TrEMBL record:
Domain N-acetyltransferase: 3-127
InterPro entries reported in the protein's UniProt record: Acyl_CoA_acyltransferase, GNAT_dom
Residue stretches spanning the membrane: none
Protein name listed in UniProt: Riboflavin biosynthesis RibT protein
Organism: Candidatus Enterococcus ferrettii
Source superkingdom: Bacteria
């Protein structure tokens, strides 16, 4: 389940973002987190694979645009959970949160987003 990021999740979110090759250094990760903490239009979501354990296993970073579009800036999942389709589950849940929005990617997320859209048949990125 995805939930809105809270500041007490900063360390785990920074750790998950460190899997991005462009966010390997701490300074860019810190700037990225601060960007999301400023709020609208940027949002960070945490993904709980098992809510009972209260362990964040993934993050989604988005920018909500006024024209019914969401830019997917970041998607990261704990390596232990990769290959199980959970990244697509995260995107499904994001789309459920924003059913009227078209999800678009960045150069870093476009290829993964395209795979999700093909798998779900959601080629326009809306519900």
């Amino acid at each position: 389940m995805i939930t809105h990021y809270r500041k007490n999740q900063r360390k785990i979110a920074m750790g998950l973002l460190s899997f991005h090759k462009y966010l390997k250094e701490e300074h860019p990760r810190l700037k990225e987190i601060e960007h999301y903490e400023e709020g609208e239009p940027y949002q960070l979501y945490c993904y709980y694979y098992d809510e009972a354990t209260n362990n964040v296993q993934g993050v989604l970073g988005i920018e909500q645009l006024n024209n019914q579009e969401i830019i997917l800036h970041d998607i990261s999942l704990n390596p232990s959970y990769r290959g199980e389709g959970l990244g697509f589950v995260m995107l499904d849940q994001l789309q459920e949160h924003y059913p009227e929005y078209h999800i678009i990617g960045t150069t870093a997320t476009a290829a993964y987003l395209a795979k999700w859209k093909r798998k779900t048949g959601n080629l326009d990125g809306t519900n």
